[in-house]
């Protein structure tokens, strides 16, 4: 068995590559007013969207437990893995990375943990890079290096209807959230070294979408790219974004994935999120 690749559910990976590369995906805990479930298993994006519309329902998320990660790594070794590369949501957004580092310490260097410095397919693209290297029979050092390299070639941008949900979860400062709300702007954010940062503020959803397309195209530079489009309760807008990005990138676009984000991230951004992740390919 080649090196095994592990990640968490906030990668929002398409099912096909998960199955093809036998990627182990561990679902993060999500609680709706104290009733705990697992993202993508017990709690759907629709559940979170409904809960956030009903303000009396409190939505919270938790990191993966170190014991759960240890169990996963041990199972993979028992099945014949020669090493494990575990790639996770930004350590600035969740404690899952720290839990993985703690769990990995029990395996004498045979488990390598990579901080994606992002989430969504900002995490998913490094996971896929690691999985492709593992499928080619590369050792744990190379697989880890491929994941880390992909992190540096991935850019995540999105806009939200309001910064209020990010403020509630402590993912963005109260001052920035207040300004956004007072001016009724649509903030465009990006993930900068693992932290959510307001990139620009525009007045309307249509302008936000147009500007998002410009920024994603610029992040793609020259050369081939893969792109992922994410949304929460905004399927029509995501489809529009997908069409615009196909037109902008043309033949340089190798793969495009579209998916609704799950509960763990949705709980912090709120309904109406639309975003894109661009991965600059080297092949």
Q: What features would you describe in this structure?
A:
It is built from eleven helices and 13 strands. The chain is of the alpha/beta class. It folds into two domains: 4-28 and 63-152, 3-Layer(aba) Sandwich (Rossmann fold); 154-280, Hypothetical Protein Tm841, Chain: A,domain 3 (2-Layer Sandwich), CATH 3.30.1180.10. The strands form three sheets. Strands 10-9-8-13-11-12 form a six-stranded mixed beta sheet, sandwiched between helices. Helix 1 links the parallel strand 1 (4-8) and strand 2. Helix 3 packs across helix 4 (96-104) and helix 9 packs parallel to helix 10 (235-249). The longest helix has 15 residues, at 121-135. The protein starts with a strand and ends with a strand.
SSE arrangement:
Elements: E1 4-8, H1 15-20, E2 24-26, E3 29-32, E4 35-38, H2 45-53, E5 59-61, H3 66-78, E6 84-88, H4 96-104, E7 111-115, H5 121-135, H6 140-152, E8 154-159, H7 164-168, H8 174-183, E9 186-192, E10 195-202, H9 205-219, E11 225-231, H10 235-249, E12 253-260, H11 263-269, E13 274-280
Parallel strand pairs: 1-2, 1-6, 6-7, 11-12
Antiparallel strand pairs: 3-4, 3-5, 8-9, 8-13, 9-10, 11-13
Helix pairs in contact: 3-4, 5-6, 9-10
From the structure above, extract its key features:
six-stranded mixed β-sheet; 283 residues; Hypothetical Protein Tm841, Chain: A,domain 3; globular; 11 helices; four-stranded parallel β-sheet; Rossmann fold; 2 domains; alpha/beta
